Structures are given as structure tokens and as C-alpha cells.
Amino acid sequence: MRNKLKMSSTVLPLLFLTIPEDIKIIIIVVLSVIVAILLIYLIYLILKGQKKQPITKEQKEELRSQENTVHEVKIEIKKEPVEVKKEEVPIQKTETKQVLVVDEKPKVVIPPVTDLEDDGLYIRYNYSFVARLHQAPKESQERFSTLKNHILSYEEVTIRDSWRNERYMHKKDPIAKVWIHGNVIDLYINLDPNKIDKEKYSIVDMSDKKMHDSTPVLFKIVGNRTLDQAIELLDMRLANLKKKENFTKTDYTVPYIDKKTLLESKLIKINKA
User: Fold this and answer.
1) What keywords are assigned to this protein (predicted)?
2) From residue 39, how far is each of 21, 26, 103 by CA, in Å?
3) Are 149 and 237 in contact (CB under 8 A)?
4) Is the CB of residue 253 less than 8 Å from the CB of residue 138?
């Protein structure tokens, strides 16, 4: 057996030497390829056979914390100015009419007393009592007419006219005087303010004013209710006088007159300042 092996070990190299050169090269290449394949396979087996290292508890907790971590993402929003186009809305001009409402607490309607001239001077209009009466609302004139008729229904009552007011007298003793301002009538009565029930009558004590020392009680008439109260106050003053028999009432209302006509009639004076 040993002899056979020795013979094969000596015979094979001799046979290889007898093979032609071309075939030798082919054999060497084939053997080299086979060796390379075996080496690659061997490396693969080594790598596959390596054992995986166990994961520690600390590594597991770290992995879990990484999974539960919320990453903040900052998003920058660029604010760009927005141009708003303004649409022009056409304005319709409407004509407005002034409506005068008269009630127990009306707005005071007083004619304008000043104007401005081209030279820069102010013109102040000084209205007479008659001019104010002509430009007062109809309701206010009717209340004035009722008030005047009531005073004149007593005997020996006379009227004294002045530029600003109308004064009513009994012989030489003043009874009352009347001023008119649009839809408000100011009635000044010759009574003692301290003897008037101020809870019932809304009066103003004018006794400290020299201009009204003979008629110190001021009562404003702005409607029908205050007109009735004014008549009650006048009756206190006229209590000692007699009523006229067969007295006929007069309508003291007057038509409206514009300012220009009143100026021409000298019922309005002009004061420049």
C-alpha cells in the first residue's frame, strides 16, 4: 500500500510535466478559482457563526427613551404684509329736514344770535320779544296766548311792553313778566320763593338778581302740564283781584316772519363785535 502511494506521489508530478503548456494554464486558473470560492465560503461561515452580544437593561431603557422622545420642530412662518384695497363707496347726499317735537322736556330752539362777516367781525343779533314770538313754534305761541288771556281776565291788569319781555302790572304793582325762547317760556312771578312748595313746583329763586328782584320766582313752561302749574302759581298772585265779567279771549299767536324781514322792521338789532 505504501509502495502504491509513493508511486502515485512521484508519478503525478511527472505526468503534470508532460501536459502541454496551454492545458497547464487552464488547470491552474480553475484551481485558483476553486480555492478563492472556498475561501469566500469559509469567511461567510465564520461571520455567520459569531454569537450576538446580549443587550443590557441600561441599553434597553435608553432605546425606549429614544423611542418616546418627542422632537420639537420649529417652523418659521413668514408674515408677509397683506395689501388691503380700499374701495371707494359713493356717498349719497340726502336732504335733511328739521322736525320740532314739543313735549314736557323739549330741546330749546333759539334763533341764531351771531354770524361772521367777510371782514372777520362777528354780528350779534339782538332779538326783541316780538321778534322771538314771531319765530317761536306754534305750540309755544298757543301756550303764551293761553297764559296771557288768563292774566288779562283779571280786572285792572295792564301790559307794559319792553324790548326783551312783556310785563303785567296791577296798577303800579308788578304781577309777572314773560320771556320767550323758542319753545320755552320763562315766567317770572311776583311771589315769595320761600312760600312755594318746591316739591310740587319746579321753581328757581331769582331774588338775588337785581334784574328780577320784583319778580323773583322763575318757572319754565315747556308743555301743557307746566302750563297748568304756571296758571296755579299766577292764581296765588292774583287771589286778591276780581275776575272780569264777560271776558272775551283773544288769539295772541302771530305768523312766522323770517329774520331778514324782522331786521328790516327793526325788530332785530345788529351789534358788531
Assistant:
1) Membrane, Transmembrane, Transmembrane helix
2) 27, 20, 121
3) no
4) yes
Mean pLDDT of 8-23: 66
CA–CA distances in Å: residue 200 to residues 186, 195, 219, 233: 18, 12, 12, 11
- Residue-wise pLDDT tens digits, 256-265: 999 999 999 9
| Phi and psi angles of residue 169, each rounded to the nearest 5 degrees, phi first | -125, 150
pLDDT number for residue 56: 58
- The domain segmentation of the chain, as residue ranges, is 131-256
Question: In this structure, what is the dihedral angle of CA atoms 129, 135, 138, 142, given to the nearest 10 degrees?
Answer: 10
DSSP characters over the chain? -HHHHHHHHHHHHHHHHHS-HHHHHHHHHHHHHHHHHHHHHHHHHHHHHPPPPPPPHHHHHHHHHHHHPPPP-------PPPPPPPPPPPPPP---------SSSPPP-----EEE-TTS-EEEEEE-HHHHHHHS-HHHHHHHHHHHHHHHTBTTEEEEE-SS-EEEEETTEEEEEEEEETTEEEEEE-S-GGGS-TTTS-EEE-TT-GGGTTS-EEEEE-SHHHHHHHHHHHHHHTTTSPBPTT------------HHHHHHTTSEEEEE-
Encode 220-229: b = buried (16+ Cβ within 10 Å), e = exposed.
bbbbeebbeb
Which amino acid would we find at residue 199? E
Give the confidence band of 70 by pLDDT, cuts at 50, 70, 90. very low
